[in-house]
Amino acid sequence: MYFPPRPFCPKCACRDVSVFAASGKATLWSYVIHHRPMPGFKPPYSIAVVQLEEGPRMMTNIVECEQTPEALQLDMPLQVTFTPVSDDISLPHFKPAEG
Amino acid sequence: MKPKSIAIVGAAETTQMGRIPDVGQSQLHCDAALNAMKDAGLKPGDIDGIATAGDSPTNLALMLGITPRWVDGTSVGGCSFMLHVRHAAAAINEGLCDTVLITHGESGRSNVGRGGMGGRGGASLAAQFEMPYGPMGPPTLFTIPVMRYLKQYGVTEEQLAMVAVVQREWAAKNPRASHKDPITVDDVLSSKMIAYPFRKLMCCLVTDGGGALILTKAERAKDFPQKPVYILGTGESVETPMVSQMEDFTSSKAFRVSGKKAFDEAGIGVGDVDHLMIYDAFAHLPLYGLEDLGFCDRGQAASFIWERNTAPGGKLPLNTNGGGLSYMHSGMYGMYALQESVRQMRGIAPAQVDGAKISVAHGVGGMFAASGTVIMTNEA
Fold first, then answer.
1. Same domain (yes/no): B125, B158
2. Chain A partners of B135 at a C-beta cutoff of 8 Å?
3. Cβ of residue B32 closer than 8 Å to a chain A Cβ
4. Are residues B67 and B154 in the same domain?
5. Which range marks the domain in which residue B260 is found?
6. C-alpha radius of gyration, chain B, whole number
7. Selection from B342, B325, B324 nearest residue B333 by Cα
8. A12 in contact with B at a CB cutoff of 8 Å?
9. DSSP B253-313
10. Do B34 and A6 touch (CB under 8 A)?
11. How far is A89 from chain B (nearest CA, A)?
C-alpha cells in the first residue's frame, strides 16, 4: 500500500498493482494553522497531514472544526468528506469523526 | 577517469515509443528505470545513486522507492546523460555510492506532465497532492512536521523559540548580520503568528546576496594566498519532493543518510567536531539536524540548546554567523553555511571559535526534500 499513486510498487518494482477504495477513516498526524492571506482560503485555516487507517499519509485540510490548537489535537479520529471544487474535481477533506 | 574501472550492467528504453498520450513524463522516467532494473536483475533497494535531467532526482527517489547516497541533477541539455555517466564513474570510483541509475523520460510529442515534476509546477506531485490545500510556500510546508515532533518528545513552544534567541546572540557578534538586537523567548512567542506554531521570529529572513567557492587539489593549495581549508568528508541524499510523504515526521531520512556518509568518509565522530552549521530556514531545523547527525539523542536537542550548549561559550558552537534566522537568507542558504565554516577554519570569523580544527556544514534542500553535508578541516 502506498501513496501517491503510481502504476508500480516502489518497494519491489512490481507492476502488478491495483486501486481500491479506502475506508475514509484517519487520524490527525501533524498540522500548521496558516494565518496569512491566501486566495481561496479564509485564515486562519489548518493545513494538515492525516494518517489513513490503511497506513499511507496525505495532506488535507481539517474542516467542520474550530481552527485552533485546542480543537486540533494530534491523533484525533477523523472522517473523510469530499468537497467539490469544480465540475470534475472533489477534494478529500477531513472532519472530526462522530461519536 | 580510471579506464575500464566502471561498467554498464543494465540498459533499457521505455516500454512504448513514438506517441504515448496516456503516460506522463515522470512515469516515462519510472518506466525506463523499471525496465533497466529488470534488465540488470535489480530492485529499487539495490540502487544507491540516481542521476537525471528533465525531472528531479528527489521526485525519482520517492516514486521509485530509492534511498540514494549520491545524487546528480546536472541539466545542461540533451548531453546531460553523458555527463551523468562521467560523474557517476567518478562517484563510484571515489566510494560515494555503488550502483547508479540514470534516467531519461520526455513527453516531447504528447506534452503530458512536462514542466518540473520535482518542483511545484502544474504537473508536479506537489501541485496535485499538496497545493490544493492552501500551503503558501515554506512557512506552511517546512513547518508541518513539527507538531508531531513536539508531541512525541514533549518539547514546548518556548524551547522552539529558544533556537531563535540563541542564534540572535551569535548574530550580535557579526557586523554583517541583518538583525543584531537581542531577543527573548517572549519576544519570539509574541511576534506575528505566521503558521501556528511558527511565529515570525522562528522563520528565516528574506534577503539578497550570494557566495562562491573555488576548489582545487590539496597539493596545489600551498600555491594560493589564503590558508587552505581541506574537505574531510561529504554526504548527500534526497527523500521526497512532498513534505507530507516524509517517512518520519520527527527525523529526516535525507539528513541521516547524508550525515552518516560524511562522518564515515571523514573517519570522525561527533565528539571531534569543533564548529557546526545546520541550515536553519526555520527554528526546528537545528533540532532535527542535531539529532539526525548524532550530536543529540532523539528528542534531546531542544534541551541541549535551552541549556546553552550551542550558544556563545557553549561546547558546540552552532550557526555562529547568526544563521538564516538572523544573519541572512536569500533563498538557498547552504552557500552561507559553507562560507561561515570556511571562515571558522581560516580563523577569521567575526565570532571565531578558538582553536577550531573541524567544522561541519549541514544543509537542507526543499522542505526536508534533500540534504548535503560537508566536513572541513584546517589541518593538512
1. no
2. 34, 47, 59
3. no
4. no
5. 139-377
6. 22
7. B324
8. yes
9. HHHHHHHHHHHHHHT--GGG-SEEEE--SBTTHHHHHHHHTTSS-TT-HHHHHHTTSSSTT
10. no
11. 11
pLDDT value, residue B187: 98
- Chain A's closest residue to B59, CA to CA, is A4
Per-residue pLDDT of B249-267, as tens digits, reads 999 999 999 999 999 999 9
Q: What is the pLDDT of residues B82-107, one digit of tens each?
A: 999 999 999 999 999 999 999 999 99
Put simply, the answer to whether B140 touches A4 (Cβ < 8 Å) is no
Cell numbers found for residue B252: 529526516
Instruction: Mark whether B237 and B271 lie in a shared domain.
Output: yes
| Number of cross-chain residue pairs from A and B with Cβ atoms under 8 Å apart | 105
Domain membership of residue B14 (yes or no) is no
A42 lies in some domain: yes
- Mean pLDDT score of chain B: 95
Number of domains in chain A: 1
User: Is residue B122 domain-shared with residue B204, that is, in the same domain?
Assistant: no
Beta-ladder partners of B170: none
Give B68 to chain A, closest Cα distance, Å.
14
> Which of residues B67, B100, B129 is at a domain's end?
B129
Q: Are residues B119 and B210 in the same domain?
A: no
A69 close to B (CB below 8 A): yes
A30 near B CB under 8 A:
yes
pLDDT band at B119; cut points 50, 70, 90 = low
Q: B79 forms bridges with which residues in the sheet? A: none
Structure confidence by residue, pLDDT tens digits, A36-88: 999 999 999 999 999 999 999 999 999 999 999 999 999 999 999 999 999 99
Single-letter amino acid, residue A2 = Y
What pLDDT sits at residue B120? 58
ipTM of the complex: 0.95
**Residues within 8 A of A (CB atoms), B 246-275 only:** 249
Distance from CA of B37 to the nearest CA of A (A): 9
Quote the CA–CA distance of B25 and B103 in Å, as a whole number: 11
Cis peptide before A4 (omega within 30 of 0): yes
Interface membership of B128 toward A (CB under 8 Å): yes
Is A38 touching B (CB cutoff 8 A)?
yes
* Interface touch B193/A31, C-beta < 8 Å: no
Helical (H) or strand (E) element with B171:
helix B157-171
Asked, for residue A81, whether it belongs to a domain, the answer is yes
